[in-house]
Amino acid sequence: MSYIVLARKYRPQNFDEMVGQEGAAKTLLHAIQSARVAHAYIFSGPRGVGKTTLARLLAKCLNCEKGPTTTPCQRCPSCLTISQGSSVDDVLEIDGASNRGIEQIRDLRESAKYVPTASRYRIFIIDEAHQITRDAFGALLKILEEPPGHVIFMLATTEVQKIPAPILSRCQRFSLRPIPSDLVLKQLEKICRLEKIKADEEALAHIVRFVEGSLRDALSLLDQALVFSPEGITSQTLRDLLGLLPSQTIRDVANELKKGEPASVLKKINQLLLEGVDLTQLARDLQDHYHALLLEKAGVEDTLGIAKNETKAEAAQYDYPTLERNIRLLSRALEDMRHSETPRAIFEIYALRLAQKTLDPIGLLKRLEEKGSSLPLNPVFMGSRGDLTPSPFSSPPVTPPVVTKSNPQPSPSSPWTTAMGETVVNQWGSFLHDVSEKKAALGAALEDAHVSATEKGLKLTFKKSFQQQMVFTSKEILKPLFLERFGHFPELETAVEIAPVKPPEAPLSPPLPRPSFAEPKQPPMPEEKKGEDTEYEEIAPHQTSSDVQKVLKHFPGTLKREKKKT
Hints:
- It is a single chain.
- By secondary structure, the chain is of the alpha/beta class.
- It has helices at residues 6-9, 22-33, 51-63, 77-84, 102-111, 134-145, 165-168, 181-195, 201-211, 215-228, 235-242, 247-259, 262-274, 279-298, 309-315, 320-338, 343-354, 361-371, 418-426, 428-438, 440-447, 465-472, 475-486, 546-554; strands at 40-44, 91-95, 122-127, 151-157, 172-175, 381-382, 389-390, 450-453, 457-462, 491-496, 536-539, 559-562.
- A hairpin with a 3-residue loop joins strand 8 and strand 9.
- Helix 5 (102-111) runs parallel beside helix 6 and helix 9 (201-211) packs across helix 10 (215-228).
- It is flat, with a radius of gyration of 41 Å.
């Protein structure tokens, strides 16, 4: 007999074996016991969580020779063919992707009229039902609403939002959730014991993290790992199979970033590239590492039970703002690398930002409250909103404390001071980034302005009047951005820079006389007109054509024509 993969071999054969879907299983059991089985069901949820399995179990309970029953016998022809997915008479499993057209649904509708040949019900299980066309759903609608008494429909889908509302309203819906990690881990350990597979706990935990709640994916990956390493599944063999980086490599990179030395960070990245490390995978693993440290620092229990002492010690070296910022920056790095032709440069830029120091805003405000607002502080923050990252491109001048998105904001009602204005001027580059994210044209207009602090607010001097007008009409956009970053909305004084008019320059030398041209010689008159004088008569404008009148508007004068001789 050919090898049966673990996902098929250990597929649940009754409701008691269902993992992580106790609510749906309990409801269906009560429906069978109380004889309140509906004529149509929809099982929705992510892949590998038991949608088709629940449909098969319900079909077995209804069509078992001892049924309807909550404990099918597993020996009668109906139970065996349903378990194997080979029933062709009374329980039909249909692939919605291959039978999505209106003609196939019409055939199904005609087939539903016939009574079952050997069972109690004629059951149609439609997998990937969301791929059925809208016209085909229309053809299915009538029989789905009022099917014959011997017909039951069961639809399974991963994208329930694509099912038309009239179909949803005629079915009982069960929304299956991803299976919790601890339940997936227990199931893997149970199967490893039954199959006598050697697998360490950390390797199984890696499988659970990788599949994200899909038990079927977990069993498929366990099968693949067993083929990859028949002598036993270890954490290292699983990392090699999945392309994950060694945990020590991730810790080494994290330590380099924590030291904050740009040259060392770039050398470390170059070394990893020479070793063949994929930077995208490195970014993902670093993000997972910082997330694990964040949960460990917060005291969140590890459901997989593999927390180590070194993880606890490392988490104690970080504060919450740093871990939160690192996770957020790595998410942006992955997104930017995906769309960039130079992913290495993008990763290096974000790595340098990760290596920069951060300040704890809560602690900073406490220090200000204890020692007074005159305490000199010198960090100048650059970058996007919420990034507590000092700029590496300029020496930080002494400025008052900066209030950012993550800081508690001072009351907007406190009086505006010149020091606050200087703070805004120093932070103008970051504020322009905030404005550009909200409205690019407004950010461009402000970028072209000269900003200075006044006693009551800011003065903005523009080069063009339309820029001044744009800012004047956009105060409702600027106000929340000012409050979000600085805690104040200053008075905005706007002006347009008027270029000085230069006086005309005196000529260097007297103008040259205009050249005179001789009158062109007239052609000789015919013999019969020699010696005769030509007479002209004046013409009134209204006696001319419309085209001539138009010319007279631009070139006023009198018109004359040659007088005819009588």
